[in-house]
Amino acid sequence: MVKLKSESFIVHFCANCVIVLIVLALFFASSYSHIYSSGELNKNIYYTGNTNSQAITLAIMVCDGSEDVATALRIFNAKQVKTTFFITGSWASVNSEMVHQIFSDGHEIGSVGFGNLKHATISLQYYLDEIIVTERIIEKICGTKPSLYSPPNGSVDDCLLRATAECGYKIIIGSKNITDRQSTNLNAIYANATNDVQRGDIILFRPNAQNVSVITSVLTSYLNAGFNITTISKTIGSDSGSQAVYKGLLNSSMLLF
Length: 257
What we know:
Blueprint: H1 2-31, H2 38-42, E1 45-46, E2 55-62, H3 69-79, E3 84-87, H4 89-94, H5 96-104, E4 108-111, H6 124-142, E5 148-149, H7 158-167, E6 170-172, E7 176-178, H8 186-194, E8 202-205, H9 209-224, E9 228-229, H10 232-236
Parallel strand pairs: 1-6, 2-3, 2-8, 2-9, 3-4, 5-6, 7-8
Helix pairs in contact: 3-9, 6-7, 8-9
């Protein structure tokens, strides 16, 4: 009789343990981040927009606080064209009125993270913190969350791919990068920004003193060529051919959080 009771106790104990394990597994599964395939992650990266339309973007990169954002904004407004301003959370936090003005004037706000990090050997959690903190700052100022992220220097790794996917961002690399702070040759800056421009191009442009001085001429060149200068979200549109293929960093064994 004692043996039967002992066996019954063991059976019930084991059954309860199994139930607890199942409940814990379901709990962690429900809170576990989505497992992304390489195909899903690739779809988040854009070098160009919709190449079937005349839309292009001259995106303004505000990263270190030395840029002449106010002048760039006045030029775009005078030309009556819209664009995307990528800003850091640190810059936005001390320039909230300018960020609000950019947004109120109908331009798009994108993120560069909080402090314009040089993306190398940074953990997934660090990326998430950078993105989310910046997102909250911009949302508090503009009332809406950004959905575009442009990594400094175009540097992308697996952790950034997963972090942006988890937060619902598209990664913008761009097809041209006019962000050299050392160049003082205005003709060279202009030529770099206007030579061989194609439909769907996304040109990343840092509005430092030298670059700002040629923005009016650059925009005029685009308009005279028949391009529609607009925000990145409108330039990338919904055309599947506009999505860039990201190669070299993805490893199927690294796709789990």
